[in-house]
């Protein structure tokens, strides 16, 4: 049985299945540097270190960490590091398993079922992008305010310089 290395996460391979919940388990990278990054990211107490069977579930990766192969399989990109719902202090983000389970009827052919899963994967990606877009809009608004403040400041400075120039 595979358990998720994130201590606050209760996902195990016994409880969830890829097809039903869309959750996959990803082993720690073999590469030393990347492995270390994952170990730091999962934020375990003491001198915990990953073993060859340690894994992190897909709930802790951003949608952008995954890519779809031509055949519609979801793969984790090489540079991905777990970052989502790691610590209890982090605001929890909607994840794959919060979406309704895929409805499969007895008349569905394997192709239809595979397409339904594909649609679900794309829905997850779309949802993550929507969230990122919202964050970008927020930061755009913040930056615009900052620009406005800077413009006012510059105007004041120019005014000040002019007044000084007249004094001289
Ligand atoms: Zn997990």
Distance between the termini: 82 Å
Give the SSE string. Answer: HEHEEEH
* Mean pLDDT metric: 83
Please indicate the percent range of residues in DSSP E strands (runs of 2 or more). 5-15%
Structural class: mainly alpha
The value of Rg in angstroms is 24 Å
What does the overall shape look like?
A: elongated
Number of helices: 3
Strand neighbour order, sheet with most strands = 1-2
How many beta strands in the DSSP annotation? 4
Number of domains: 1
The low-pLDDT segments are none
Bound molecules: zinc ion
Helix amount, in percent?
A: 40-55%
> How would a crystallographer describe the biggest sheet?
2 strands, antiparallel
How does the SSE layout of this entry go?
Elements (H helix, E strand, L loop, with lengths): L17 H4 L3 E3 L4 H11 L12 E3 L8 E3 L5 E3 L33 H58 L1
Antiparallel strand pairs: 1-2, 3-4
Bound molecules: zinc ion.
How would you describe this structure to a colleague?
The chain is mainly alpha-helical and 168 residues long. It contains three helices and four strands, in the order H-E-H-E-E-E-H. It has helices at residues 18-21, 32-42, 110-167, and strands at 25-27, 55-57, 66-68, 74-76. The strands form two sheets. The protein has a two-stranded antiparallel sheet. A two-stranded antiparallel sheet has the order 3-4. The mean pLDDT is 83. The protein binds zinc ion. Residues 4, 6, 9, 11, 57, 59-60 line the site of zinc ion.
